[in-house]
Fold this protein.
Amino acid sequence: MDTERGPAVALLSGGLDSSVLLHHVARDLGRKPLHAISCDYGQRHDRELACARWQAQRAGVAHHCVLNLQFLGKLVQNATSLVHGGADVPDLANLAPQSADQPPTYVPHRNMVLLSIAAAYAESCGATDVFYGAQAQDEYGYWDCTVDFVDRLNHTLALNRRNAVTIQAPFATLRKAETVRIGMRLGVDFAHTWSCYRGADRPCAACPTCVERRHAFEEAGLTDPLTQTALP
C-alpha cells in the first residue's frame, strides 16, 4: 500500500485549525479513504460538533465518527473552565500572568486521550497516520499541543509490534494566520467553523480563542465571517 496516498484519520473538532487540516489532508495530500473522529467531551462550545459534521461532508470524508466522551468532562470539570460544570471561561485580558503557561481553558490530558482513541481507530481501519491540528500559537499554554508532545507520543506508538500509527501535526510550527491562509487557498468555508469557548449564539470576542482567531484573520488580511465586532 502507498501510505502517502492511502487511508488516514483526522481528529476533527470543528474549529478553525482542525477544519483546515481536514481539507489539507483530503486535497493537498490526497489521502483516501479519509476518516474523521470528533468527540463530545462535555465542552461548552459543543456547537463546534455541528461544524465538524458540515466540514466532514464538505471534504468528502468516508466515515465520520462522533464519539460521546462526556465522562471525560465530568472527570475533569474541577480543573478546567472549558466543560460544563467547570469555572467560568475567563476573558483573555483577565488571565493572570502566572496562569499563562497552563490557563484555565486547558483540559487535563484531553489531547492524549483523543489521540489515543484516534490511533486505535486508525489501526482498526488500516490507516498508518492520524492527523492532528495543533498549531504554534497554542504552545504557550498547552503542553499537549507542542512538537515535543507529538514526538514523544510517537515514540510510544512506535512500540506497536504489528501496525504502528504515527501522529502527524503538519501545522504545529505554523502561526494561526498561516493556517487561515491555507484554508482560504483550499476554499474552506470559515462560516462553518466555531472557536468561541463560551459557545453562545455569536462569538464573545473576549475569550482567549476568540481574540486569537480575530488576530489571525487580521494578520492574514482577511475578515472572519463569524464576527465583525471589535476586540476589547
